[in-house]
Every structure is written in C-alpha cells, then in structure tokens.
Amino acid sequence: MNEMLARHLDWFASLSPATLAQIDQVYAADARFRDPFQALQGREAIQAVYARMFRTLGQPRFVIGEVVQQGSRAFVNWDFCFALHGRQLQIHGGTLFRLDAAGLICEHLDYWDAAAGVYEQLPVLGWLLRRLKRRMA
C-alpha cells in the first residue's frame, strides 16, 4: 500500500468532527462519491455527508480491514460501527478508491447491503424484509 493511501485510511479510521476539517488533504476538489443512497460530486458535498453522519448517528467510526491496491486504485473492506436509537449497529462493506496524480481521492464508490445495514433495522419494514429473505432462501 502506498504512503498516501495509508494516510487516507488512517484519516478514515480516526474520522471525527475535528478531523473532518482536513478533508482537503484526502479528497480532490472535484471528487466523485457514490453509495447506495446518493451520488454526488465535490469535496464540499462529501464533507456535508460526513458532517450529517456525525449529527445523526452516535459514535460513528470506520474499522479498516483488508486493502488491495493496484496502481491508482484500491479496494478497502471496512466495518462501519455506530449507535442509532440506543442500539449498537455495524455495517460491513467495501470501497473502491481511485487516486489522482497528486494522490488525493478523486473517486469513492461504496458497496454495502443497504437492506441488511439499514432497512432491516426499521421495525415494520425490517420484519417484512427478513421474512422475504427467509422465503427466498
């Protein structure tokens, strides 16, 4: 793993409202971001996503797992741990990063199961999704 990617992953692992101000050392100004809920572009828009995460979730943190890098691309497995309505939750996922010539993230594509990670945690919808999964298995 190259040094820039290692620094970026350290930033994610220690991300807090205070370290969010260092986002310009991690993301390119016109970086693209996509997850199961949104697609957006620009460092300010990405910063707003993380700021909202800190406002709406309790103790959010990323635990970095396996990293596979080839050239300017890297795939990173992670666990996202947080509290919501007094419950401790965890989402397992992965991110494909592409770094620009300066070593900043210019593309961030998240892959995770929104149904298992979010929707199944909701009372009525969660029951319905779990039942549907059991029937399809």
Automatic annotation (TrEMBL):
<dbReference type="InterPro" id="IPR037401">
    <property type="entry name" value="SnoaL-like"/>
</dbReference>
<protein>
    <submittedName>
        <fullName>Nuclear transport factor 2 family protein</fullName>
    </submittedName>
</protein>
<dbReference type="InterPro" id="IPR032710">
    <property type="entry name" value="NTF2-like_dom_sf"/>
</dbReference>
<dbReference type="Pfam" id="PF12680">
    <property type="entry name" value="SnoaL_2"/>
</dbReference>
<feature type="domain" description="SnoaL-like">
    <location>
        <begin position="10"/>
        <end position="108"/>
    </location>
</feature>
